[in-house]
Every structure is written in structure tokens, then in C-alpha cells.
Amino acid sequence: MFLNAGKSKASDDEHGDYDDLQYSSIRSNDDTLRLMSSGEESNFDEGDHNNNANVDDLVSKMDLTDDLLHMVFSFLDHSNLSKAARVCKQWRAASAHEDFWKSLNFEDRNISVEQFEDICRRYPNITALRISGPSSNQLVMKAVSSLRNLEALTLGRGNIMDSFFHALADCSMLKRLSINEAVLGSGIQEITVNHDRLCHLRLTKCRMMRLAVRCPQLETMSLKRSNMAQTVLNCPLLQELDLGSCHKLPDSAIRSAVTSCPQLVSLDMSNCSCVSDETLREIALNCANLSFLDASYCPNVSLETVRLPMLTVLKLHSCEGITSASMAAIAYSYMLEVLELDNCSLLTSVSLELPRLQNIRLVHCRKFADLNLMTLMLSSILVSNCPVLHRINITSNSLQKLTIPKQDSLTTLALQCESLQEVDLSECESLNNSVCNVFNDGGGCPVLKSLVLDNCESLTSVQFISTSLICLSLGGCRAITNLDLTCPNLEKLMLDGCDHLERASFCPVGLSSLNLGICPKLSTLSIEAPYMVSLELKGCGVLSEAFINCPLLTSLDASFCSQLTDDCLYATTVSCPLIESLILMSCSSIGSDGLRSLYCLPNLTVLDLSYTFLVNLQPVFDYCLQLKVLKLQACKYLTGTSLEPLYKGGALPALQELDLSYGTFCQSAIDELLACCTNLTHVSLNGCLNMHDLNWGCNCGQSTNLPTVDTLSRASSNENVPESSEQSARVLQNLNCVGCPNIRKVIIPLRANCCHLLFLNLSLSANLKEVDVTCLNLCFLNLSNCSSLEILKLECPRLTSLFLQSCNVDEEAVEAAISKCTILETLDVRFCPKISSMSMGRLRTICSSLKRIFSSSSSLLP
């Protein structure tokens, strides 16, 4: 059984709604039942007598008085009370106090009649009781005769005989009676419920022939899903009646029962298929205070001649009789607040002027085409899956959010909603350009903040003038060719999928960032954004006219804007002087005149001129004194002399990263660059055809103050090697020479002073034959796909990863190389024809620090 501990006070407030009463979540065991049946008088014989005596002595020393125990135990549920009862006699007596056993639950509990009688005799003041199961009739008869203070009684899953209902009057304090899933009586005679104090009655999923209820104090009654042919009510104070799914009740019986309750406020007769308009008219005449009506799934209800002026909630789901003519009757319910018309298949239009309406639902109304609402208090509207809806007109002072997605036929929208802040019209494919007027200043939505028009594919020219709009989404509107936004507070804009946009104006907007890289047909752009810091125009290949006025802009990516001119670049740099990152990759129309405009950008730190036709970089060297990153990939018209100011004149003193990949620079220019530009930390020379050797063993431009042999030996032992203050300041950390087909030799000796070099990538250099690297701090070396590699010498005490995939180097060279790499963890020798998979153990023996070896026979050897 489930039990609910509580204090001695028993009142209406204490019990609350007994149908929803929360009993203890812990099912009691037999100890609880024994405690309830035996009580304080029984012998305390659990455990050894001497042990009990010791426990009693201990409790006495704790000086816990009966009053203190009572207060503590009032916080325990019945399961824990039962456990406490096993401590000592004092605790047993205290836990058995009747104050803790007011509400008992015997649902699905195998309890004998004798045990139940004993419990009732022990606790005569029980106020709440639950019983279910085959023996429920016998137990409840004992309860009715013994428990005179019973206030709430719940029965279920059994056969409740007539004698119970006759004896019910003996429970004079009973206020709540609930019977669930039971057979009442013998099934052939009338069941009578006659009680002077009963206030709440629930007979759900019960079977009976007839029911008569005579309860002068009854306030709520539910017969939901019960099976009966007739019901007679004599309940003058009844306020709530639920007849939902009483399929066998005829229309006349429902009419007679409901009209006999003049104080009725709430009526649920959903799924009573026999209910007619005549019954509703009689109810309207006799129940003047009716405010809640649920007539869902009543196919004969049309409401055309029904007048219910006090109604506040009306639910008419799946009522086949509801049509546009029914709206005239609904309009008489001037107090109406909630209206639900889901699945009304014959409804074609709704036109209502209801001053108090707050919530309306119209879902799956397949013929519904026109919605006209004038209700100042409307705060929620749900319109969904109405395939022929083409017109919406709403006037409301309270509506804040409007969501009407996937209305394919919607063409006309009129809104006068002074509080509306969010609108979602996604996938309304028939909406045209005129919808913009609805959301512009003066259009009826003065405080609109968020507007979603995703996948509205009929929009071609969008223009918004709004001082309130903050978020606008036009994702998937592929037909838009012209976009004009004058929204000074706009902070978020979504244009994904607007790939046919040709002209765009954002003057002014409050955006902090904007990505137009998904608009390949954009040719004309105008932006005035005082707060914008990032602008991406990548891929706008036909953009030829651009006015950009963003005084706080720090990042501009104009990659692949091949039509962008020098004049446009000049105007942009003048109006955006704070730019720090400028990407002009593949901007083939930019020339030396355009580069001269860089003098307007004193804070420029990142410049990408890759894939351009530039021949002179002098403006870059003259004006970009703070430049840290310079990318010149595939600038085929730049020669070695173009970089002379860099490695001869000391230009760009702050430069750290230089990318000359796929360039045509000669070997001597590359050598001098690497020798003289000691401030560089990252250099990329990928795919440089004119690079033949990387030999820092001679003429490397380094100081003669080289590390001693002792320094090298200590480095090989993993000791920290402090830099000599006299060493040259080469700070190169990352060198990429991927895919250099003509490079044959890489020699980096200790005297090259590459003490900061951490990452060296020489992969895909097919003609590379010799690698000799002595580098104290190198941790990553990639020689994969260097198919001609024969000589490998390494003295790299901090190397952790070595990749030799598809190299022609033999086992002896690899063994010698890794023997001096004392902390190497990862070795990749897959597809190396001269290295046998059987030699992996020997490699591990030579280099004990190895954790991962990749070989052709196994992807990973532990």
C-alpha cells in the first residue's frame, strides 16, 4: 500500500483535490502493515532482547522526548516510519501515532478483511482512503461502517454493489467520491448516489444501467467514458459536469440532465455524437452562467440558432456541422476568450469581432479560405495546414507573436497589431512583394522586432523601412533580385539561398557583421552600417559597384570579386579606416593604384593578394608598417626583385607570416628571404617550381656565435637549452614546402640557429633525396610521398611525430634517424617498400618512446 504521512489537522485544505492526491512514492512493506495492525500495545520482540535494552539505554541518553519525536516523525513517509519503529519501543509507539496515518492507500494490495478491520479499529480517524481490486467491495463496506471521519474515498477495478451506495449516507463527512473502471451494481437496476455533503463525484470508465444522483452540495461531477443509458441529476449547486465520451447517452437524457443544473458553469460533452442544436438551445436557456463548453466531435452541432452570451471557452474540434454561418451565433458570445475550431472540414471563413477573445485555433480546416478578426485582446493565434487560406486580416492590441507557416495559398495579409513583435511566415510561397508594406513603418506593426520570410519564393523585390526591426530572415527566397533595407536597428540578417540577388542596399542598418558571399550574382552594393565590424563578399564575382561606409569595420573579405576596381577599393579604405584584415584574393582588377589606397589603413595587419596580377608591391612596403600576415599565393607576375625591399631594405618589420606558395620566385630570392627576414614565424613555399635546395649549412647569414657541442649533447638528453643572448634572432616556427618538385636536398645544421622551428612539412616533394636536420625544438616533420628520399639524418631531441609514408628510404636510415629522437611518439612508415612490417619491433627497441607506429600491414601498431 501507498501511505501519506501527515499531521493531525484534517481539513478541506489539507486534503485538496483527492483525485490528484499525491501519496507516498514508496510502497510499504509488511512491517508497515504489522505496525498499523499491532500498534503500541504489541511486544517489541525484534532482534535480541539484550540488544534492544542497549538501544533503549542509548535512546534514553539522547533525551528524545515524545513531543520531539512526534515533530521529527512528522517529516517521514510511512516506509521510513516503519523503519523507525524497529529501533526501540519508544520509537515504535511514537511512529504509530494516528496523526501520521490519515491517508491510506490499499490499491492493488493483498490485504485480508481481518487486517483491514484491525487497521480501521486502530485508526478510526482516517480521512482519505484508496481501495482497488477484486475485494474492494468487501473492504469499502467495512470502511463505510467504521470510518466516520472519512472525507475522500477512491475505489477502482472491481464490482461495487448496490449495498455500498445505500450505506454511503452513513459516511456523513464524505466530500469526495471517485470510482474508476468498475461495474456498479448488478447492471440491471438504477444506481442511486444520495449524500447530503458530497461535493465532488467522479465515476469514470464505469458500467451501469441508470444513474440517479441526489446530492444538494455537489459542485463537480465527471461521468467521462462511462457506459450508461440514462442519468438523472438533482444537484442544484452543480457547477462542473463532464459527460465526455458517454456514447450511449441519448440526446434527450443529456438535455434532461444538464438542464436540471441551473448553476452549471462548465460542461464537457465531447464525443457525445447524439447531441443536437436543440439540446444546446435548452442548455442556453436553463444554464445562464455557462462559461465553458466542449462540444468537440459532435457532428450534429452547428450552433446556428444557439445563443450563449456568457461563454468564455468554446471547443468545437471536428464538428462537421460548423460552417461560416455558425460564426453569427459565436459572435453573440461577447465574453468569449478561447475558441478552438480544429478539423472543421466545412468551415470556409471566420469573421469575428469579439472584444475579449484571446486565443483562437484553426488547424486542418481544409476548406478554410478567409480569416478576419477584430479583437483587441487577442494574444495567441494558431493557423496551420489550411491549404486554401488566401486572406488574413487581424486587428489586435495584445498580439505579440504571429506564426502562420506553410500556407501555400496565402496572398493577402493585413495586420493592425500595435504590440506585435515576432512574425513567422515561412514557406508561404504565394506571398508577393506587397507584404513588405505590412511591416514597414506605418504599416500596422510599429514595434515589430523579428520577421521570418524563409522560402517565400514569390518575393522578387524586397524593401523594408522599419525603425523597430532587429532580426530579418529571407533564407531560401531564391527569386529575390533586389533588396533594399532601411532599418537602423537591424542586428541580424539571414540571406542563405538568395543566390539570384543582383542589387542590395543596406542604408542604414545596425548590423555588426554581414555575409554576402552566397550571392554570386550581386553587382551593385551599398552599405551604411555604423556598427559593422566584419563584411564578407567572397564569391561576388560580378560585383563592380560597391559603396561601403562602415567606420568601425575591421575585417573585409572580397575574395574572388574579380570586377572590383581600384576606385572602389580607394573609396572603401577612406570610409573604413579601421580595417585590420583585408582579403583581396583573386581580385584581378586591383592594380598598383588600388594598393596606394592602403595608406588609409594604418592598422592593417592581414593582407591577402593571392592570385592577382600585381607586378609591384612597393605601396605595401611603404604604407603597411603594422602588417603581420602577407599572402602572395600564385602571383605569377611578381619576381624576386619585387620582394627586395623585404629582405634587403628591412620593410615590414612587424611581418610574421609570409605565404609565397605557387610563385615564380627564384632560388636566390628564397634563400635571401629565409636568411635575412629573421622576424618571420610562418613561411609557406608550397609548389615553388624554382626552389631546388634548402641548404642552411653555408652562407646562411647567421652569427658565428654557434652552440657548442656540449649544448647539443645536453639538448639530446631532453634538458632545457637556454638561448644565448648573442645568437641571431631567427624566430621561424613553421615552414611549409609541400609539393616542391625540384627540391632535392634539405640541410638545416645546428649553426643555422633554427631553435624556434617546430613544424617542417616537405611532403609531396617527389625529387627530394636527402634530408639532414639538426634542430633542437622541432616536434613535427612530414616527409610523406617523397618517393626519391634515400638519405635521412635527424638530430631532433624533441621530435614527437615523423611521417615517412610512401618514401623509398631503407630501414637502416630510419633506424639511425629515430635513434636520436628520444621522445618520438608517432611514426608513419606505411607504403614504404624498403621497410618490412617485421621490423616494427626493432624500431620500437631503438626508440623506446614510440607509442604509435603506422605500417602497411596494420593501420596502427600499439
UniProtKB/TrEMBL annotation:
Q: Name one Pfam family in it.
A: F-box-like
* Residue intervals of the F-box domain: 58-104
The record lists the lineage as:
Eukaryota, Viridiplantae, Streptophyta, Embryophyta, Tracheophyta
This chain belongs to the protein called: F-box domain-containing protein
- Locate the region Disordered: 1-23
Question: Where on the tree of life does the source sit, at the highest rank?
Answer: Eukaryota
Q: Which InterPro entries does this UniProt record tie to the protein?
A: F-box-like_dom_sf, F-box_dom, FBL15-like, Leu-rich_rpt_Cys-con_subtyp, LRR_dom_sf
